[in-house]
Amino acid sequence: MVKLKEAKKSMTRKNHSFKVSNTYTIYGSLAEGTDLMEGILDECEKHNIRSGVVTCIGSLKKVGYVLFKAVNGLPSGYGRDIAIENPVELVNCTGFICEDENNNLDLHLHGLVAEEDGTLSAGHFLRGKNPTLITVEFSITYGNEIRASRSFDQDLGFKVINFSK
């Protein structure tokens, strides 16, 4: 992968933002056993949401996530899958609903969890590896005017979300 410092020299990605004039919010909860990411994506499909922001709290039976790895102090991809095989409190979780390169619904989700002894862990959640323990309450804010597309950026060496109107 291209080093971030080298990539900055040739980056074509620019800061960008768009104002949404009509936004909507959905509130919901995921039942016991429902995967965190799959459950939120299912609710997005149900309400025809293709881009938005999600926040949630709750509890998980176990956790699967990754962190970026660094080489010489620069991000160089994601490290190995990390698992916590016991129940955790989902203290804070937030992410972006978007479409992938094939226009399939996708979710880029990060969160902070606490184990029973108070140990905190955080990272980039993995799809299919985070079943709900009791419940996960969530809210989704969306505006159909914005398109969020997540694709691999060769210069950065990561998937990034680009927004358009």
UniProtKB/TrEMBL annotation:
Listed Pfam families: PCC (PF03479)
User: What is an example of a GO molecular function annotated in this UniProt entry?
Assistant: DNA binding
Q: Which CDD domains match?
A: DUF296
Give UniProt keywords alphabetically. Answer: DNA-binding
Stored SUPFAM superfamilies:
AF0104/ALDC/Ptd012-like (SSF117856)
Domain PPC, chain residue ranges per copy: 20-164
The superkingdom listed in its UniProt entry is: Bacteria
The cross-references to PROSITE patterns, in alphabetical order and at most eight, read: PPC
Q: Which PANTHER family match?
A: DNA-BINDING PROTEIN (PTHR34988:SF1), PROTEIN, PUTATIVE-RELATED (PTHR34988)
Name the record gives this protein: PPC domain-containing DNA-binding protein
| Organism expressing this protein natively | Metabacillus herbersteinensis
